[in-house]
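Q: What structure does this chain adopt?
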Amino acid sequence: MSEEQRRQLQQQLWNIANTLRGKMGADEFRDYILGFIFYKYLSEKIQRFADAELAQENLKFSEIKEDTAEGQEYIEALEDAAVNELGYFLKPSELFHAIAMKGSNQLDANGVGDSHNFILGDLTKILKNIEQSTLGTDSADDFANLFEDLDLTSGKLGKTEKEKNDLVAKVLVHLDKIDFNLSDATADVLGDAYEYLIGEFASGAGKKAGEFYTPQPVSTLLAKLVTANNKNLKSVYDPTCGSGSLLLRVKREATKVDKIYGQEMNRTTYNLARMNMILHDVHYADFDIKQEDTLERPQHRDLRFDAIVANPPFSAQWSASQLHMNDDRFSVYGKLAPSSKADMAFVQHMVYHLAEEGTMAVVLPHGVLFRGGAEGHIRTYLIEQLNCLDAVIGLPANMFYGAAIPTTVLVFKKCRKHPDDILFIDASQYFEKVKTTNVIRPEHIQKIVDTYKARTNEDKYSHVASIESIKANDYNLNIPRYVDTFEAEDAIDLGAISAQLFELDKASQATDATIAAFCKELGIEPPFAVQEQQT
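A:
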């Protein structure tokens, strides 16, 4: 598929999504359209799998007669194979195309459907059946309650049942016409389109977007940093994974990732992350996404990860309960991050889970570089005792939806090749303004990554600072202390300025005299006191 065809697909899906826009807010119609796209994906995936299984029988999955004994035998055999391989199952009558045909009041090639096109009840049952097909299997956790945010009884779809049904049917019929090109296993066309839609929804969600989406350029930067020295990863982890886009970006940058781990507190976003994994063809056994508060109830406590990436909620509140002083993630530091700013608590959590040879990259607000109190104490411990901070990278302001503040990327490694220094990069002026947002382009990202790998000093851009110099600065990591970006202003010629002012004054007096002459002709007083011309 060409880039133009890819863009056309994305625009088609966005146009279909906008069918729902007038009925509800961006975050609400997001859940519906992404849920329907996911159902279509699962349907096409199971159909391709079943058709391949039935190839020797010279039979198509959609042609199986479910009301016959022979048909039931086929379905039972296919269900066992599909649940084992794909993690779920759909019957022929439950396929997306069949329900879309019924919604459009048409019969498919096998006569499935009838003259009554009410589909909401059927659709609700089908989505529940997908989840129930996994019960008691290894994929049960990955599919449990996956469609719970797709409420087909909501009044936001319409005032009457007919209005709701007509709207949903319209969306399904439009989606049914789109080819997701699943036959091309290398293209990931649908995965790209899904990511595009998530990004578009984020741009319309304002501050709430931070709950589920990291802008793609930032995701790319973090992914490139954690794979800079190791592209074969046993594991990657994001403790605040949102929709999972950051984890998937690492998978794309790496040569191989054996397993993906994540945790997300928001239930709706957690469902979105699991859908995103499956849509990007990540096998259900190869990802483990949990729904819980990461700081209060971590779900992967005994694991250590080769790569960790995160964009935690900036300066979020947390309990800071003294009970955490008995938690190995925090106890060695002797202090907890303040309850009003959990930034350093997330850092402590991630450092604890980082493998000895692993790399971690996290986006945080600039305040973590210089704030004092408990945060200053934790920062000092990370540098002085653990010596795991490898680089500090300053990004431009206004890069995140609903957050105009400048941010920083901190890179951590436990076994550092350069234990006597820390690299500082000031990339805050390298961006392109797009509408109201600042965007770092691929060349800006590559410059950061190249500088990180080479650890070079570049005037007004990067500096390798010794641990001793950082200690002399009382462990304050504010980037301007290490990267001098001062630009001397051009010298001012006071004599020339004085001459310009003199000429302006002469011109002003001449103008006043002209106005005064007009006023005299009109027999009125001028609006100022007429000064005598200086000689």
